[in-house]
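>> received
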Amino acid sequence: MAATNYEGGSKVNPVQITEDEAAVYDRQIRLWGLEAQQRMRNATILVVRLRGTATEAIKNIVLAGIGKLIIVDEDDVSEEDLAAGFFYRDEDVGKKRVEAAKARIENLNPLVTVVSSPQISLLDAEKLDEIVQDVDLVCVTDWDRKGLCQINETCRRFGKPFYAGGTFGLLGYIFCDLLKHDYITPDRTSQKDGPKNVKTSALYPPLHLALRHRWSGLTKRQTKELNPSLIHTILAIWEYQEQHSGSLPDDIDATPELEAIANQVLTASEVNKLVLSSMPKELIQTMSTTAAHEFSPVCAVVGGMLAQDILKALAAREAPIANFFTFDGNTGGGTVCRMNM
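>> returned
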């Protein structure tokens, strides 16, 4: 496949879908149309960090037929990666993650160009600018809050949609900042002979603003439906990371500190106290011992949801997540909360 050309971050000479490719992607074209498939075919996606959530997301977006995938990860494959990262094998332990995964990603769909880099430090502003300006969408998984906010701001400067996702033990999350996103959605209010679809726009805030979301305007019922304990547990873990140089809680002895942080976050968010006056002790205790570990089923669900939403954003059909999704592996349920939208 010919490489996609860029000029100042804008594509020229977009690749057209061939008859052979149309046959491969026939089912998807029937689902969301040739124009949407064409957009995906010309899309370049940057995925950062190849842990369990990312491997599941990559599998789905590559099989769907994006044009180019750039994978960046500086770390080596560890024994723990083998549990949830199905691109890795026993003999890959000690190798760079991107080097171990590249050939297996390419085997999923030879029509997709895969570029890997084990050396780019995305916290180097100059290198980050260089790579972000030449892609269409950025997805960062299992990163700390500060790093996510930094990459999100870089994406905004270049007008690039941004996704973040990951898991903490049995909990998972997805956040997206799609800037101003236009998409086609079914018009459920139209008359029988009226238009079937309508163009809709949504404005998304960056992560640092979404994190300032306040819950004070919600009713008791609305608050309960959003399951605030999950969201605030994730926010508390990010804060714990910040205070511990990136380390996650991984011992029962971390429970008192994590609980204190979680209750501080909860109070600052102004959640209706009739619904949640303090964080559930059992949940905090569980996260104190499991947040640093990956569970394959949770990664599969969160990674699958992440990929599905990325494809929605690229296809510009149907509404993507707006804008913070949480998943509870204990119950198998998920919730979407509009954080400062």
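>> Confidence is low (pLDDT under 50) at residues 1-10.
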